Amino acid sequence: MSVYSGPVFDMAANQFAVIADHLSIPLDERDRLLLPKRAITVSCPIHRDDGTIAVFEGYRVQHHLTLGPTKGGTRFAPSVDIGEVAALAIWMSWKCALAGLPYGGAKGGVRVDLSRLSRRELELLSRRYMQEMIPFVGPHTDVMAPDMGTNEQVMAWFMDTYSMYQGHTVTEIVTGKPVASGGTVGRLEATGRGVAYLARRVLNELSINLNGATAVIQGFGNVGSYAAFELHQYGLKVIAVADHTGALYDKSGLDIPALMHHASTHGSIAGFSNELAYDPDQILTLPCDVVVPAAMERVIDAHIAQNMKCRVLAEGANGPTTPEADLVLEKRQDEIFVIPDILCNSGGVVVSYFEWVQDLQQLFWEEEEVTRREYHILDRAFDQMVKRAKADKIPHRTAAMAIGVEKVRAAKTTRGLFP
């Protein structure tokens, strides 16, 4: 029996089993690599605006602390549960190891429908969640970051709450903060920017002309919107986007800067254009050069994978492709180049690492340096993944995860098992 359950955790466990078999990891070592070191569940009571008390359930999972503190986002969404959070923490471990960062993976979240919270209630919930986490987190234990449903402002509230309890400002407790509160330039754009950079690199290697190439973006939050903007800047036509409110399609290319302005003003793409409305269920199978799933987990199943008509699948979301879909994509690897999530969306944690380092040193970099360093790490990880995939004749996801798992396993082996 295990406290971890659900389709997302099962997916992470199944992926790990594939890697463990590929690496011939003995059965008695597998649970130590897979199961999280620590899982915390807390109750977060707040006073609602109407004077009533509401209690929200919060979670934090720290997968391993073998290489350094854990690192990971905090998600505010109705779907959050301990199994989902654990899976995301596990993926973050492999992601950090692949990128060469001195972190283990973590993830947190609160089960809440943000549409039913006022700004005041959101602040109270954010502060209460951090207050409950104070015994379990710290700049050298677990460093939080934003995720779905959280943003720079929430991170500022987290940092302020932790700092008030310490009696001095501790900017390095979270990343993804506003620049005015110790954040780094380039962090807001980092994940989407990295997705677009890697997609562009693959297009160049496939000899596909960027000018006139097309892209489809599923999810238009922070990751999807900045990926769309960067691809637009590279010369691609973003012909379709979707979010939780619907989808838009224009074969001549959408006005991405105008759409970003609309989404930031109104909170979604809804209302941007009635004429361009499109069926969101069809967006992932549109003919195009690049598809970027940048929303939720498990959106690409075997049926969708079989019907995709892109050349590059750039996974901006965590776990967007099911194991069944991976089997289909493995057969289509000559048609579709997969940039797996643990590489494709790792620009966010890479620049979060830069923010943590800058906060610890109190020495801040210019955005040009942040971006240059981000791209260097992404290029290095990409080269390692492709080299491993070719040498072992395995899919890119298997290669990327194998590199990450090997690094964590090697660290655990050399440190040994504490008596």
From TrEMBL:
GO terms for molecular function: glutamate dehydrogenase (NAD+) activity; nucleotide binding. The keyword Transmembrane does not apply. Pfam families: ELFV_dehydrog, ELFV_dehydrog_N. Residues 184-416 form the Glutamate/phenylalanine/leucine/valine/L-tryptophan dehydrogenase C-terminal domain. SMART domains: ELFV_dehydrog. Substrate binds at residues 71, 95, 352. The keyword Oxidoreductase applies. Keywords: NAD, Nucleotide-binding, Oxidoreductase. PANTHER family: GLUTAMATE DEHYDROGENASE, GLUTAMATE DEHYDROGENASE 1, MITOCHONDRIAL. Belongs to the Glu/Leu/Phe/Val dehydrogenases family. This is Glutamate dehydrogenase. It comes from Bradyrhizobium lablabi.
